[in-house]
Amino acid sequence: MKNILLHVQDDPGMEARFQTALSLARDQGGHLTCLQVTPTPYFPADGPVSPETFNLFVDSVEVPARELRAALEARLNSDMVSWDWRTRNGNSAIEILREALLADVIVAATGDEAPDISAVGALVVHGHVPILAVPVTASQFDPGDPIMIAWNGTAESANSVRHSLAMMRAAASVHIVTIAEERLDFPPTDVAAYLSRHGIHAEIHERPAEPSVAEALTASARELGVSCIVMGGYGHSRYRERMFGGVTRTLLLDCPIPLLLSH
Prior knowledge:
ten-stranded mixed beta sheet
């Protein structure tokens, strides 16, 4: 993962995302692109904009954005990581996807304190690169720690495995975890064989879906001491996940460990 795209926004998860992206860039010898997206100002179309209204937008959006950029650039200048800074105006998910044309991974926010969980969902479903979704509460990210694959035999799971090979090569160990709900067309032994051909040894674990699939995966990740969970995102439609719940949505809202998601 040589080209890392970091979503920059002044929100509670910015520090966790920044530290995670830096750690990944250092470990992979990669280049960090910081993308700062500011919302397009909305002003009534049926009349002139008063100076007070315009100044309010500048004070509430533009000034904090400039201050955040200055603070992060000062820290980047004292680091050995290769980086550049880009700015866009508009919808965060749309602009991130446009900028991610040549990215290997997008680092974005997740968790119930994230500014817009639907934006991460849009990145997962419509993007062509994996999303490293970092919880607001994440304290640190060590790419050398173990990695867990949440395997359910779907195309989305297979994509997440392919997209994370570089990270798995750097990990201390790799664990394939399946939840005993139903028979898989592609069992975890196939994943282990695939990884072995890439020089990666993986251990297989099967867990009961208790009390739920999402909670079983989170408990396994904590038990194994992993740095992130590699998994397919939105195997069902996002509409169905919103209506009936789903593993992806549940973990995006309430997982304390970074998720590497592919669709």
